[in-house]
Design brief:
364 residues; 10% strand; 2 domains; 14 helices; 7 strands; Rossmann fold; disordered N terminus; seven-stranded mixed beta sheet; alpha/beta; single chain; AF1104-like; globular
Length: 364
């Protein structure tokens, strides 16, 4: 298996066009009371569910997590109370900084990966569906394949335990990839760049692409891996970059490595690309559902310096809307997400479950 080793240093993403002017998360909650109240409420409600998953995960390991959850609750609950009273108590307040304090509280309490069990079960379900999906995509016409792959990314992206509406759907067991894909909002989507994307793919293959993946389960297995596979078939070198540390139900670098290893057993395209290092797995250095592109792993920066990267894909609501919605890159950029949060929807003049495919070419 080809993976890159872990380091604790951070680097600036080399394809970021304006690092000095870059702001990862544009919503300044410290000076926006309405939006601040909304997001603090979201984090408080989601925290209750997170601790329930943490207890279940610990029980699976034969550990009583009651004290750990109480400790984490004191830390993160205290933080939320403090920023409610004084929004600027810890400096700039945004969704990313709240995520940071949540993860710090969990680690300080000894809670590493509260959604491990759910990720494992969703990974298994998705892997069972992947061979049939690959056959469907390989049989499709070029035009249909482009659409089916993007629809697969949208459908898979519904697995999101950080959004209240989809969190409830998964906890009730009422979601399946096929039915979600069949019920996606029709084209034209809220942002619909499919025709421009398809036209660009017909011109010439990309040389190399970085794909920032989002969640475990159907999101990465049935959405982003088929997209990566399609690019590989065109001759594009692909870097799949996942979180270094767990956060909610995001897939981690180590989990992605296991998934890719299992996929090589039945898909020769992935197997050959991995062996030839046309497909690389490089940890992002990230620890949150959102992403700060001035703090990526040195390995990812090195891979971008080594390869002629001319495409970056930012997938998921956190990486492409809550953070990095307008950042300029020195190459083509594809942003893909399903809108699953009312606050995000309002900020982008959208509705729940709207579909976003934004494609920006570097020379545009």
């Amino acid at each position: 298996m080809v993976t890159e080793q872990s380091h604790n240093d951070a680097a600036v993403f080399p394809l970021l066009a304006d690092p000095q002017g870059y702001v990862a998360c544009p919503w300044d909650l410290g000076h926006d009371a309405k939006r601040r109240d909304y997001w603090l409420g979201v984090f408080r409600r989601q925290w209750v569910s997170l601790l329930q998953h943490a207890k279940s995960e610990a029980e699976d390991r034969g550990v009583d997590a009651t004290q750990a959850c109480e400790h984490a609750n004191q830390l993160f609950g205290g933080y939320l109370n403090q920023v409610t009273r004084d929004p600027l108590a810890f400096g700039r307040l945004d969704v990313l900084s709240i995520c940071k304090h949540r993860e710090q509280a969990l680690r300080a309490a000894g809670i590493a990966d509260p959604y491990r069990l759910l990720k494992e079960s969703e990974n298994e379900r998705a892997l069972a569906l992947l061979p049939a999906l690959i056959k469907e995509l390989d049989r499709a016409s070029d035009t249909d394949r482009d659409r089916l792959i993007i629809e697969g990314v949208f459908a898979g992206n519904i697995f999101d335990m950080g959004a209240e509406h989809t969190q409830k759907m998964f906890e009730e067991g009422s979601v399946d990839f096929g039915s979600v894909r069949a019920k996606l909002k029709p084209r034209p989507w809220k942002h619909d760049a499919l025709d421009a994307w398809s036209a660009r793919l017909k011109e010439k293959p990309y040389q190399a692409a970085v794909l920032f993946v989002d969640n475990a389960g159907p999101d990465v297995v049935l959405g982003m891996i088929p997209l990566a596979r399609y690019l590989l078939q065109q001759g594009t070198a692909v870097v799949l970059s996942a979180n270094t540390e767990p956060s909610l139900n995001d897939v981690t670098h180590n989990e992605l490595a296991v998934l890719i290893d299992r996929i090589t057993a039945f898909d020769p395209v992935i197997a050959k690309a991995l062996q030839a290092r046309q497909l690389r797995l490089v940890e992002s250095g990230n620890w949150a559902p959102l992403m700060d592109l001035t703090m990526v792993s040195p390995q990812l920066a090195a891979a971008c310096d080594e390869l002629p990267i001319d495409l970056v894909v930012l997938e998921g609501m956190g990486r492409s809307m809550e953070s990095n919605p307008h950042c300029k890159l020195a190459c083509d950029c594809l942003r893909l997400a399903m809108v699953k949060d009312l606050g995000v929807a309002e900020s982008f003049d959208a509705e729940l479950f709207d579909l976003v495919m934004r494609y920006e070419q570097a020379d545009a």
